[in-house]
User: Fold this.
Amino acid sequence: MTTLADPVIAPRRKGSTDFIQKIAIGIAILLFALAVFAPWIVPFGPLDQSLLSRLRPPLGFERFAAGHYAGTDELGRDVLSRSLYGMRLTLTLAFAGALIGLLIGGTLGLVAGLRRGWVEDGIMALVDMQIAIPFTLVALLILSLLGSNLTVLVLVLGIAGWEQYARIVRAEVRRLSALPFIEAAWTAGAGPVYIACRHVLPNLVSPLVVQFTLALSNIVILESTLSFLGLGVQPPQPSLGSMVGLGRDYMPTAPWIVLVPAALIVALTFSVQIMGDWLRDRADVRLRDR
Assistant:
């Protein structure tokens, strides 16, 4: 008999959750494929201009220009072609930034977990500083001082979120260090490099893959924000954020210039985030069996 004091645990609606995850993963795979094969898919080059076809609406509207299925921008450039190329560049920058963050955060977290003492305290102090300061403001400051070329942009994106990798790796290393096989390796005289490569790193693959996926969507948003503000990818090179920023003046008369890249940003971040949640559920035994 259930009393008021008994907790009521609502059953998990696994069917609907799995359906949403499958849809999101399908969208993510489709967007990745479109970005990879963009040069062979797009009907026009991303920089091709035709002033006679400027501000033409998408397919289904009057004044539609043949071949420009998503319309054209203020210079007659094909919005669909620029959006796919922009998504290709945005994903490339996001992957590069996430990989740099993984290398920096993973290395520092590994050192903090194995060395302990003042080394661990110093690294975790840097982690706390990174968390405490809004990184968007830091990125704006760095790009304002050093310029907004692609090299600086990739480095800025790379140091965004490294602290999450460091915290995850440090926590996992400390958990693994208490296990018998790690203590046996230390007793046998194994060095920290051998223990890290042979015993620790193989057990960190799952959480790092999950964090890499989640960081990818966050970096996409950060890059889009910086490009929207004019401090990211510079014209005429297209990226999703810069396309939204340049097209906002034409929202009343040609909203498709903004809506197409904005929709890709939303779909990309949503699908990658859901895919990261799915990977987390699959990697965590406690969540997998629920």
